[in-house]
Amino acid sequence: MSRGKAATALDLPRPDTLDAGKQQGAYEALRGAILNRQLPAGSRLPSTRSLAERWLVSRGTLEAAFERLHCEGYVQRVAGSGTRVCAVIPEQFIAAPAPSEAARREVVADQPEAGVQSHVPFVARRPDASLFDLKSWARCISRGLLSVGPGVLEAAHTAGLPALREQIADYLRSYRGMRCEADEVIVTSGIRHALDLIARTLLKPGDTACVEDPGYKPARRLFSLAGAHVQAIAVTAEGLDTAQLPDQARLAYVTPAHQAPLGMTLSVSRRLALLDWAARADAWVVEDDYDSEYNYNSAPLAALKSLDASDRVIYCGSFNKNLFPGLRVGFMVVPKALRPALLRTLQLTGYPVGATDQLGLVEFLGSGAFVRHLRASRQAYQARRDALLACLPEGSRVSGQQAGLHCVLWLPAGVQEQDFCSRAAAVGLTLQPLGKFCSEARLPPAVILGYTALTLAQIRYHGRMLTQLLIAA
Ligand SMILES: Cc1ncc(COP(=O)(O)O)c(C=O)c1O
């Protein structure tokens, strides 16, 4: 393009954006002219003096706008020959070419998975995120970010930020009776992430992984994905039936605090038997402590990991249940012998949790806000549980209601779980049949009831419907 013929900013009318904020307005007007090619590549911008006269702004304002365009790569400034639009503007470096219209598909709005939404009666195992103090969380994130320099944001902390691991270890020592140190903690995005890491790292095709039956299906699926032979072990009133564990296995997965889904606590004698078995079989025990913060009748038993004298228990915890499900932060406490291998898998998969959430949690735990939230949510959940139990007809049999975020309602003998759930769905109740959690176990009919993500009014209203269904069953 020859010099004098190129369009210059003098051809541009004074932009309206100048009235809102002069420097920003001048920058936006010039950038817009470059992007829509009113100022094509190579064209020369006028001097800040002549443009200032025409646009009725100070030269300093334009100098700052030109400098910003220069820093962002839109213009070149060469002493003695003025300011020119660059041959290639930054948008061409940072944005891929737009897809052609023909290639665009109709966008289907993303819906939360059916059955796992909060405030749907009686969806189970959901916390009530509206009890969470978002303002305090926002302050923690902001304080956390402002308290560190770029070094912390740049460094690779595969196991999680040391300050967060310290806080987690401190919490586990004080509330779960564990003698654990920060260097045993690995930050994950939740319990399923921990199970995935364990499966990828420890299991080879053909290894045996023992799981509870009934039990938490994602654990079974993740172990199967790694090629393991998954062996279902029955659950009795004392929890996992340790007498059924095979002589040889690579690991056993358990939910000792509140069996998922039946809700009993693994007895102390079974805990000791499980640890003995692990030592004999040279196996690992995976402890899923998913909802142990919520106990309504008495203090919780310490974690199984607290009895782990031979360092065989991989403890998995999560903030996704006690804070809010979208947070996606959890943690593991791992035996020393497994730490390097687990960290290698974590690094390879590139899943470590973002620094912003970790820094926010350091503040949230350190300021006492976390424990305050646990106290308040426990109280709210207990009131909701009591309201649900009060709604049920006399003689109803419920179990697992002493702790956690759900309980089991046993249906009258002879009732088909699926039929009952379909009749409930017809009046807007989402119930999970116990059979969905079973592999080989054949148990009397029952459904899982969640109450924590419902208001008291919802529980009373929908509880009456549930009662009518039970009476009619
Ligand atoms: C027994 C059990 N473990 C783990 C989880 C999931 O934890 P996270 O969301 O941290 O992966 C759930 C979720 O309902 C659960 O029921």
Automatic annotation (TrEMBL):
SMART domains: HTH_GNTR (SM00345)
All copies of domain HTH gntR-type, residue ranges: 20-88
Record bears the keyword DNA-binding: yes
GO molecular-function term, one example from the UniProt record: pyridoxal phosphate binding
CDD domains associated with the record: AAT_like, WHTH_GntR
Annotated family: In the C-terminal section; belongs to the class-I pyridoxal-phosphate-dependent aminotransferase family.
Protein name according to UniProt: GntR family transcriptional regulator
Organism placement in taxonomy: Bacteria, Pseudomonadati, Pseudomonadota, Gammaproteobacteria, Pseudomonadales
